[in-house]
Amino acid sequence: MQIELVTTRDGSHSLYRPDLDEQYHSAFGAIQESMHVFIKCGYDAIPTKKLQVFEVGFGTGLNALLSFLKAMEEQKEVKYFSIEKYPLSPELTNQLNYPSILEPGSSAIFENIHQSAWDVDIPIGQFVLHKIHGDILTSQIPSGNDLVYFDAFSPDKDPLLWSEEIFRKIYDSMNAGGVFVTYSAKGEVRRRLISCGFRVEKLTGPPGKIHILRAIK
Ligand SMILES: C[S@@+](CC[C@H](N)C(=O)[O-])C[C@H]1O[C@@H](n2cnc3c(N)ncnc32)[C@H](O)[C@@H]1O
Question: What value does the mean pLDDT take over residues 111-127?
Answer without folding.
Answer: 97
